[in-house]
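Good morning C.,

I know you're traveling, so I'll keep this short. The sequence:
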Amino acid sequence: MSSKLALYNGALRKIGERKLTALTDDVEARHRLDDAYDDEFIDLVLSRANWNFAERTAQIAGSANAGLGYDFEFTKPSDFVRTVVIATDELFLNRLEQYEDAPSVWQSDVSTIYVRYISNDASYGGDLSLWPSNFAQYAEWVLAEHVCWALTNDKDILEVVAKGIKSSFEEAGRFDAQYRVVRPELDARQLRTYKGSLRKLGLPSLSEIPVELQYRMTEIWDDQFVDQVLQEGQWNFAIRTVKVDYDASIEPDFGYRYGFAKPSDWLRTVGVASDGHFYAPPEYYEDEGEYWWSDLQEMYIRYISNGSSYGTNYASWPEKFQQYVEWELAKQIQPIATTELSTKDAFALCERALMEARSVDSMNQPNKRPPVGSWAGARTQRFYRDDNNKRIR
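The tokens, ready to paste straight into the viewer:
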């Protein structure tokens, strides 16, 4: 952690001069250092590279450009020092290639830009307490160069300072590169869900939240998050129906005679029947782990699928389901997010969204005749026919 006095004394130490006791010392060294520091010294050292601790992100709307060339002009922020990257989206996935970087403005043909830049603001690069020690060492060498000749009149010391600047800059760059933030790449559905979750918690946009929070959201998403929300209901858009034959390689130890391996995209069983119309559910079967067990040699299964044509076909997600998904993610990140929404309220709102999604989804289900029970079936001796026109109970 650096400070102005520490910066001054570090520079003086590097050229063999006596250190200051305070920034008010009435000595030549302090006056020389003040002159160098006030001559945009902070901007000078910050402008040499894309330092992590000094990076800031902004969304800037353009104004019509009356000049020639590009259609829009963007005024640079007052704390601007150096451009890092410009993009057309807040996650900087689509970087802008065609633009003009003028002294006080950027010019481009898009109406809104997202800019990551080096800032001299007191909360970014202008806060000396945020400077990594390697960068502070580099800044001390640069400041030492500015006052070296006036205070020492020694060419040998000046050469030592020049070497110190070079080596400390390289070291600061290597250290900074180790901590360079790489934000995870998101697909379109993740991006929409992340944005929605942040809005529900009253948080700023993705480009403004701490990168640690975005990484936590991605960890949750990657930890079978979509499978989890699909398992919360018998969603029509995710239901898949298949006919399965028993697997001869599966030999039950006891009980049922036949085993059926579940498909790789299975998440949750919705219904089991002995006919393709699901009129006749089997009287006895078991749903255990990776298998179904039965005395039938073939069964018809309706289940929740995470296949690309079913549950993970994001284009088929109803809006109410999407809203539930956003609340589920918001609920899971709420404990580590800086938000006024309490954990209790987050859980309650998520549960309400789930109930609404289930309700709307159920209205899309056609009316069905309930299967005949065993008692009624015994009295009526009602029969059905399977897909092979064989009469079944």
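Safe travels,
E.
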